[in-house]
Amino acid sequence: MYKHRIRAALKRPLTALLPVLLLSTLCHAADGTGISSDEIDRLAQRAMKEFNVPGMAIGVVRNGEFIYAKGHGIRELGQPGPVDVDTMFKIASNSKAFTSAALAILVDEGRISWDGAVADYIPEFRMADPWVTAEISVTDLLSHRSGLVAHAGDLMLWPDPNLFTRRDIIRGLRYFPLVSDFRSSYNYDNVLYIVAGEIVPRVTGQSWESFVDQRIMGALGMDRCFAGQIPASEMTNLAAPHGEIDGELTVIERSRIHAEPAVYAAAGGIVCSVSDMLKWVRMHLGRGTAPDGTVLFSPARSREMWSPENWWGVSARNYEWHRTHFNGYGLGWRLSDVHGFKEVSHTGSLAGMRAWTLMIPELDLGIVVLANGSNTSARNAVMHTIKYSYLPVGQRDWVATYQELDKQEEQEAEDEAATGPVVDPRPVVEARPLERYAGRFRDAWFGDVDISVTEQGLEF
Predict the structure, then answer these.
(1) Could you give the CA distance from residue 228 to residue 232 in angstroms, rounded to a whole number?
(2) How far, in Å, CA of 129 to CA of 133, rounded?
(3) How far apart are CA 10 and CA 359, in angstroms?
(4) Residue 166 is inside which H or E element, if any?
(5) What is the DSSP secondary structure assignment for residue 429, as one 8-state letter?
(6) pLDDT band at residue 236 using 50, 70 and 90 as cut-offs
(7) For residue range 371-384, what is the model confidence (pLDDT) as tens digits?
(8) Is it the case that residue 138 has pLDDT exceeding 50?
(9) 22 burial level (CB within 10 Å; 0-12, 13-18, 19+)
(10) What pLDDT, on the 0 to 100 scale, is given for residue 443?
(11) What is d(CA 340, CA 357) in angstroms, rounded to the nearest whole number?
């Protein structure tokens, strides 16, 4: 939905948004001192109400101190449990930074190299092009520049859970054609992060999950954050995923938090609380060192993770709103500039869950927003409001801004529906009996697919 909104908005001149921007922009420049706890409380309540999100957890760390950490709303519709700082959410693609950090630890230990060939660590690894197979490095895996089509292979990951294994995913990569030149474009993917995670057991003999839980979560005292198996004693205080189905907000049962780790864990499967995410952010702002002196990785590795390895364009809206001049991807982190400050961040989106981790290193500022709803606007409005309170520039009513964007998207959808279906000018071909389509079909990448006839029609 959000991607559709961006694409649609970019087709419109910025003047289409001018009225709401003028109305919602405050008349004074922010002094950069930040937003009060009471203001964040009111902001969260307003965003949850306006965007139909049951619960949120929000945290802010500044100059090494936790200055705000609080839960809002409820964990699950129809249930009394409130969200608090220990409520665990799926953090989705925020997990990618944990994978890059795990590999940074191994780089510091001299066990791998960022420029090391993936095939040297995983001999059976193959891409469609033999030259790419030989050349693709650990850095390439982490920076979305392999040449694969965006989101290649996601059908092996979702719906979740399924029966695909990581071995299946690695083997399937050889059947995906490359749609752009190697290292020439930004095509976001998840499957290569799963490959990156599998480097860990190949060089350590320890699973990615165990390594991350021990070397990162354990080292930082992140007791409510799990990459691997969640102990039964910790399977409490869990945020339930919510989304609108037929216009009604409901729990998305298949997307609940499970004790077993997901096959895509290295790309998007970590479960965490906002209190522990703040510990994670504070360590990163310390360039790999926690306040108690615990060192996860060196400042050199931090600089490498936060240096762009890939680039994409800046939209007119991003420049208009944030004065952004560059967008890049480092190793597990998105990188950009906002009104002259470097921004290091990553979002996460799974069915029923939204997350965003953001840091402005020059201000020693970190912000975390976790939500148990599918509306991205709530997450974005809260994040931008808090972030801009620390910048010496004008503040905007971000809730109103995203409300207007949502309305525009809904209107565009209605307009498209009103035009009716596109009429195919080709002659109508008489349909064959459904039984003719039933059977088992095999795809080199996906495997066996059974098509059967049911009372509702054909079933995949």
Answers:
(1) 12
(2) 6
(3) 26
(4) helix 166-172
(5) P
(6) very high
(7) 999 999 999 999 99
(8) yes
(9) exposed
(10) 87
(11) 19
Total number of residues shown for the chain: 460
19 confidence band (pLDDT: 50, 70, 90): very low
Taking the alpha carbons at both ends of the chain, their separation in whole angstroms is: 25
Where would I find the H helices in 312-434?
316-322, 376-388, 398-418
Question: 296 is written with which tokens?
Answer: 């996860």
Encode 328-348: b = buried (16+ Cβ within 10 Å), e = exposed. Answer: bbbbbbbbbbbeebebbbbbb
Burial 354-367 (b: 16+ CB within 10 A, else e): bbbbbbbbebebbb
Strand locations in 238-283, DSSP E? 242-245, 248-251, 271-272
Prior bond to 159 cis, omega within 30?
yes
pTM assigned to the model: 0.90
Interior CA angle at 281 toward 280 and 284, to 5°? 95
pLDDT class of 247 with cuts at 50, 70, 90: confident
Q: Cα–Cα distance between 176 and 446 in angstroms, integer? A: 11
